[in-house]
Design a protein that fits this description.
It is a single chain. This protein has 241 residues and is of the alpha/beta class. The protein is built from 9 helices and 7 strands; from the N terminus they run αααβαβαβαβαβααββ. The chain has a single domain, classed as Vaccinia Virus protein VP39 (Rossmann fold, 3-Layer(aba) Sandwich). Helix content is 40%, strand content 15%. A hairpin with a 5-residue loop joins strand 6 and strand 7.
């Protein structure tokens, strides 16, 4: 068994508990998880992935847009819940990652669901019309507000925008991209400006992106947001009207 996909601020026992009750990963998903551990590639992990699948089932989703797909891990979880005539739009800057995503989806007999787009996710979203039942945002954190604004009118009442890394995110070490303590200090008004912290400039930029996003979505009267405290923290924003 691979090591659990622990968020830095989610207790180990919670992840162990979740592991015992969530659906098991398929062999393909387990292979993808092993690849992520081996290569240090950030993915949402099986606890969040299983929840994304369930969200798609609850919403009777037929169409999903992903802002940032990596090598297709979250898309493979979504694919388990979509009908045969469904669609997942995968976006990614790295063409090799999308080639890998297509290969995994093909092995799951889900290749026909995928529309694969190389490039900037926000720009790609602007070229798509019609309804999306779910959008997943998992790109550069300072792009989150732009992603929300680009997709919001495509989300129907009852539809959902899911944003990953809204508690923490790490690349080389935990929280070197999004700093939880700084987030909490601003959200609880202990400080009013990240420039008062000693965060590195890049960490401050991404952390500020999450602050801007959380502030922005709370101001949207047509949407309601809650937190899913698994992995690196996922906010779930549902369109009310």
């Amino acid at each position: 068994m691979t090591e659990p996909f622990l968020g830095e601020h989610v207790p180990n026992d919670v992840t162990r508990f979740s592991e015992r009750i969530r659906p098991e990963s398929t062999p393909v998903l387990s292979e993808m998880e092993a690849y992520a551990h081996r290569e240090g590639f950030p993915i949402v992990g099986p606890d969040v992935g299983a929840w994304l699948c369930q969200l798609a089932r609850i919403n009777d989703a037929t169409r999903v847009f992903e802002f940032g797909s990596g090598y297709g891990y979250s898309a493979c979880w979504f694919a388990r819940a979509l009908p045969d005539d469904g669609e997942i739009v995968l976006t990614e800057q790295d063409a090799e990652n999308l080639d890998r995503a297509e290969s995994y989806l093909e092995r799951l007999d889900a290749a026909d669901l995928a529309a694969v787009e190389v490039g900037d996710a926000v720009d790609i979203a602007s070229r798509y019309d019609g309804r999306f039942d779910i959008a997943l945002i998992d790109i550069e954190k300072y792009q989150y507000v732009d992603a929300f604004e680009e997709i919001r009118d495509s989300i129907p009442p009852g539809g959902t925008i899911v944003a990953d890394n809204t508690m923490s995110a790490g690349r080389d070490v935990p929280d070197d991209t999004v700093d939880f303590d700084a987030l909490l200090s601003v959200l609880t008004s202990e400080i009013d400006d990240l420039r008062r912290t000693s965060l590195p400039e890049e960490t401050r930029r991404h952390t500020q992106g999450i602050i801007d996003y959380l502030t922005h979505i709370r101001e949207q009267s047509a949407f309601e947001t809650t937190l899913l405290p698994l992995g690196d923290g996922v906010t779930v924003t549902t369109r009310l009207r």
